[in-house]
Amino acid sequence: MIKKTMNEQGVKASDIAKQTGYTSQYLHGLLEGSRRWNETTLSKTCDALGLEVKLVPIKSGTDKK
């Protein structure tokens, strides 16, 4: 979703880096999957893009009642 939103908004990793205080290289690593996201990096990046972080339950094949 982060990559998709960046593409839609025409935002580059360097733009996000300036807003979050991270380096462009660090953000590229996150986006490529060679670095792991943590709560802080995810929160700062989403804030910069105007995204909200939500936790939702995983849908299962059976409903538990």
Q: In a few lines, what is going on in this structure?
A:
The longest helix is centred in the last third of the chain and has 11 residues, at 39-49. With 65 residues, this protein is mainly α.
Helix-strand blueprint:
Elements: H1 2-9, H2 13-20, H3 24-32, H4 39-49
Helix pairs in contact: 2-3
List keywords for this structure.
mainly alpha, 65 residues
What does this structure look like?
The protein is an all-alpha fold and 65 residues long. The protein is 55% helix and 0% strand. It is globular, with a radius of gyration of 14 Å.
Distance between the ends: 32 Å
The helix count comes to: 4
Largest sheet: none
Report the average pLDDT across residues: 92
Shape type: globular
Unreliable segments of 5+ consecutive residues: none
Structural class estimated from helices and strands: mainly alpha
